[in-house]
Design a protein that fits this description.
This protein is mainly alpha-helical. The protein folds into 2 domains: 37 residues, no CATH class; 26 residues, no CATH class. The chain is 43% helix and 8% strand. Strand 1, helix 1 and strand 2 form a beta-alpha-beta unit. Helix 2 crosses helix 3. The longest helix has 12 residues. It starts with a strand and ends with a helix.
Length: 72
């Protein structure tokens, strides 16, 4: 299993390159910044799991479409 947590769109591009190599086996997960918001790290980040809501409220024009697409 490979976990790619470098952010969109880099992680998807890296995943495609790994797959295109032809030697890849197993599963790859593109998790983006979700590791930063995990409960194990919540003590290190003041905003924890509510960060997406704060970002959505401060930049709705830029983020609404992305969040709506990812929610489906």
């Amino acid at each position: 299993m490979v976990v790619l947590a470098v952010g969109y769109p880099r992680q998807e591009l890296i995943g495609r390159l790994i797959q295109a190599d032809g030697r890849a086996r197993g599963v790859g997960h593109c998790v983006g910044a979700s590791i930063d918001f995990s409960p194990a790290r919540s003590g290190e980040r003041r905003d924890g799991w509510t960060a997406w809501l704060r970002r959505m409220c401060t930049e709705p024009r830029r983020l609404a479409k992305r969040y709506a697409k990812d929610a489906v």
